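#struct-help
A.M.: can someone run this one for me? Single chain, 257 residues.
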Amino acid sequence: MNNPDQRISEKIAPEVLELAARYYANHTQSYSAAELVVAGKEADIPAEFIQQAIKDVEAKHKQQLAQAKRSVNFRRGMLSIGAGILAALAVWTSFTYNFLQRSTARVEVAWAQVENQLQRRADLIPNLLNVTQVYAKQEKELVSLLVRSRQAYLQATTPNEKAGAIVQINQAIDRFRSYAVANPQLQSSQLFINLQYELAGTENRLAVERMRYNQAVQVYNQEIQIFPNSLVANTFGFKKQEFFQATNKDVPQIPQE
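D.P.: on it. Structure tokens below:
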């Protein structure tokens, strides 16, 4: 011992004694090569066989130790690779989710533009109603149809309800136009002519916004269906969206507010 007067901390003294006891046990339970040769003589085993056996056993134990180390290193390597794969998968999932969310937002923005034009179309109903009341006071059924269609749109709260209500508005407008065709006095009024321009303008703008919306839906539907985006889409509940049909007979499935 280099310094017999060295003070050992009370915290590590038990651990030191335990480790020293293990070393001593290993020492007392081991044999020297000479002792094994002597023991072999008692069993009539030549010394050269004892020496060969010692070399073979030591080589075997070294091989087992090396194999154990390789196994440990292999497991560590696999764990590192697995952790890297999981990290990469998490990053990819997050990126794809955000990508699909942005695509969903584009669909919602496109629908908002469609809804703006639907609102403009619904706002023309009071003017149509005024013209009808001036030139067609006897057309109570037409007046009632215009009023009901306007109320249905104002009462709609969800995108699907609004899309359904606009069908009634279109039916009311078509009914008004049919009546106007049979009434030259109504067609010649400046108020009616102005309304015709307004109606044509809303139809054109609605057609453009409907086209943009359907394009956004087409891109979105492709993005959630292609592999591997479909894995994230299915996991997080991204649903396929329906196109807004030009006939307005089929109400599109719009992203819920």
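A.M.: thanks! The chain is about 80% helix and 0% strand.
D.P.: also worth noting: Residues 27 and 221 are 75 Å apart (CA to CA).
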